[in-house]
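Please review the protein record below. Tell me whether the encoded fold seems credible here:
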Amino acid sequence: MHVIKEVKTLDNKTYDTIIIGSGVGGLAAAICLSRAGQKILVLEQHDVPGGWCHSFYINGDRFTPGVHYVGLVGEGLSTSNLYEGLGIANDLVFYRQNPDGFEHCWIGEERFDYPADFKTFENRLIERFPQEKNNIIKYLKLVNNVGHQLGLISQINSLWEQIIIPFRTKHMGKYSPFSLKRVIGWHIKDPLLKRILNIQFGDHGLAPAKANFVLHSAIMYHYHVGGFYPMGGGGAIVKAMTNAIKSKGGLIKTSTPVKRILLDKAGKKKKAIGIELTTGEQIFAKRIISNADPGITYQKLIGKENLSLKLNKKLDKTKYSCTSLMLFLTVDLDVKKAGMDSGNIWHMPNRDMDDLHDEMQTKNLLKDKEFPGMFISCTTLKDPTSYNGKHHTIEAITFINYDAFEDFKNEKIERSPSYLKFKEQLIAKFLITLEKVIPSISDHIVQKELGTPITNKHYINSTRGGVYGTEKSLKHIGPFAYKSKSEIENLYMCGASIVSHGVTGASYSGVQTAASILGCHQNDLIKPSNEQHLRVFEAEDDSNYPDWISKKIKIKRSRSIK
């Protein structure tokens, strides 16, 4: 029998479940399992929990690298149901972004705003493209049907529902093999209209020719009632989740990187029995959940030699999502007067999106004057309580190829002069585009910081700095995605590579993984509660703010004056 010598363990305890990584998937699983009475330990290599959802501060100004807006917030909608079912809704507040334009399309000289109401969205498109009226109605109905049908999959409880689900999801099944480019090409002819309808491709990182139509429909449906931003940024969600875990006796340890997952190889099937930290300390548990991506989990923490030939082949073929550059700015400028509001801006030239995506994946980032595409948002307008009355915070993002940073892959905490110089050159390139959106912004920068793929790898520990886990092509979603239960006994997974990416999708993956462990349905773990209610206010209208929010805003601004 293979025996692992036990050394001093954390608090000398054996846990029911150890969760590697504290992204929202891992935290959601921890909440569900701790509420079921399990003794939970969450281990995080970064010095704060949250993964992509964590918030950080630069001289008092808050930024969140992975939360820019969330959809399906409202009574009876899936995001609200999730937080209410997890018992954390009362600790959260969301702001609805500009309902007349929560997404602003800047496509060359053309402008179009996505309203929060889907019918208004349809009417606005028809008014702009009257010759495409019937096509618009038909296409948006298809998008809506597919998005709705995707939500039905998680509601299957009985045998009868399993039998009838193919009939209730017929649109999803019919179009699932096809790319976004192909399906939209069957319905829409006007090139600009196609670009407007595809502008949210940044939310999955794939060009229309490679993106799956069902996936893109899910993104559009996720925001069909608008975009919402959490008060306190993504860190507020993380805080609510960690507090819920701690209230049930769960333990969360940051700055605690895991070196490997311990296996018992004695039986016919390998079994996960614990973990070893980089310090050499070993901690044992009845089961392990990895919130890391498949590459980190299987190839680094488990090792190829411990995997089946089939899984190794799958891993070798797995592709990961694009990585990013994120510019974080603080400016002493009235950005509202400059034309910004709480809506996001998608900025790109009026050209074929597949060509633009290819350009974004160039290895020479200094070749052109501007980045081909950019996402821009002002967090102090999305969360009014974060504005101090003087300085606004702006986040601008573009997707790139990880290979563009190949020369810097071995960078240490003490960054090299060549790396820092490269960052300054990239910031200058960002500002060329930002000047077009917010004139004279360069003259009003209080502080600036650029997050790169090297930053992503260091803080998030994602393969090639990927922002969405595995690439969201057909080969990596739905039935082809990695499963929550692994081939190794007592080893489970959750996160953006399992059920879905994004804040809500990754969180639901954790619930699904917990349900798999507990032998129940995910809905059993997030039942509606009359005691939980997610509060939502308007980012653009303070007339309905309760006194405590108004007071919070007043205190924030008075402190900056001092």
User: Anything to note?
Assistant: The chain is about 35% helix and 20% strand.
